[in-house]
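*** Residues and shapes ***
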Amino acid sequence: MAGLRTVGAIALTLAVLALLKADVSHMVAGAISAMVATFAIKEKQRREQAITLALGLPVALVAMSLGALLSTRIVAGDLVFLALIFAAVYSRRFGDRGTALGLIGFQIYFVSLFVRAAVSALPGLCGTLVVAFVCSAVVRFVLVVETPERILLRLREAFRARLGQLVSAQIELLVAGPDHVEKALEDVRRHTARLHQSAMMIQGRLEEGTSDSATALLVQRRVADAEIAAERLGVLILTARSSERADTLTLHLPHAPAPAPGNRLRTQDDITATLRRDLNALRLLVARPASNNRGAAVAHLRNRLLGYRDEENLPRTSVPVQDVFRGIGEAARGVMGLRLALDGPQDESDDTPATTRSREELDAEDVAMAQAEETEPAEDVRKGLERPTTRAAVQVSVGSALAIVGGEFLSSQRWYWAVLTCWVVFLNTASTGEILVKGYRRLLGTVLGVVAGAGLAGLVGHHTWTAFALVLVFVFAMFFTAPLSYALMSFFVTAALGLLYTLLNTYSSAVLVLRIEETALGAACGVIAAAVILPVHTDRRTDELLGMVLTRLGVVTDAAVEQLSGGPARDLLDMARELDTALEDLRSSTQPLTHPITPLRTRRQTARYVVALLETCAYHARSLAATAELLPNSKSVAADPLLKGAGRRIAHNIDVLVARVEDGDSDGVVETGASLASMLETDTPGTPRHDRVTDRVLRHLQRLDEGLIGLARPLGVVSVATSDRASSRGGRA
């Protein structure tokens, strides 16, 4: 949608300028200005967008005027450019509006350099800016209307589609032969990660896209339920077709081998066929909204799947296979809750007792959620050079100064490409390693784009409208590929610029080669500035984020265990999403360590292993939070005081890991000992209490405990059995 809106703004601007008989240089300036005026604005509410767009026009006029007035005064122009760069980066501390206005000021000054603005042409260029901003407003608010409600609606449908894709992948995992199980498992991993991404995107749009906080909380809860149930179903399917219980780490560690194959399903073709039938029914429930129900067929499928939540409806087979049927029942309940939250009330005339019980549980949860209190997000208390925006502003200003000096040696007319690259590589980066990887990707995309631009320039020649049409295609491709690959985005940007050079009659192979040289210089200046001026090394950045993830993991786990033990209710889902956000930041910060060009393979493997373990721990923490949110009004979940004792070792181990990461404390030890899952056993050893939610909670705690113990080794923390530690203390005493 961002690409469509930007392309629409550019096309409308070109059409208006053509009617006004503007020359090619003004049309190029108008196209770039319309693009900037559209993509720079990130606010979610239409009113805020309109205010920022209105404020952006005078900023653009000032920037264009400065560029034209200082075009013959080299030193003064360079100093003003550096001031704009500093302001553009520093203004990010003021939120989306500050970011947008800073970006508009910088980019429009760049446009003045690109089209070689002069004082004599200033009135026409200012008129072009007005046309571009007006056209951007028309497309944004009239032609391509984008409201938070519509965005959230599309995200909800995307989540439904992702959920259906995950169920399809789980079906393939169920029936895959020995030679195809690894590929099927990789598909399940990929679709599980995509489902989680969709859930996070919905979380980011709930506040603006829903009518009130109660509705937002309801959708958030139902999405979390469906996500957790679907992920758990994948683990249960993997366990059922293995000779050992599958670890959730298998779903989070890339290229992790599947557990050893077993024969639990190999000799039970009828059970496998039933499971496949029920998974197909689950996929149908996911894909079909309530408004598309016809007759009693969908209700029959729903009732059958929900029936698996009752022990008497389970087929007589092995316990792991029965767990899969239970997982299908819980997933069906999650889907029903999702349908109620997204599609509204449904016909209850065909409900069975199992379905009625599930509806009553969901209604009770609605009551509990309606009583939840909202919490305010914590503010960043860092000041001065400790603030990331201030540090980045100083770094990019120094890097840009180096790029100006070096760029002048390469070309006295097109030195600004080096400055642009230096500025761009600092966007959305927070460490030297991230800047290095981004600079490498931009250089790679630029080299490939130069080759494509040279070929297209030769084909298009001076066919103005053909060139503009291709530019529109490349702009859309730039936006479409930006979330997928920065190198691809840079490729389309460079190819489009090659066409614009052709339109300005400044195209030559030497110009495009110079583009590569300036890009390499700008990336190098950015890396040098980041490494020398107030550096934030990748290790330091990842340690900070790792400590934050572990801290939030401890907060979620402690609050969930306390609530499950009978303690006061907390806003657990928001805590869980804060954990997910911190984990996403950590995952991004480790890209320099996990990138294929990284020469240190051991560090790359360690980073992947740590992130995968944390993803596993976060999944179990989310599951604990979702279960605890059912209290106190659920008929199926009751507080169990025993759980408080089960969580003490986990809390201690998290504290030790946090102290190790944040303070370098090497004295603490991670405690191991008797399995927390041993609390699942009844009077008959080995017989699990499947009819109690406490069993599932203890399993999540056990997996969480195992994940934390697994983190101890790569973090350099000693693990000691609880009994051994106690005896050693006694010896020292």
About this structure: The longest strand covers residues 669-672.
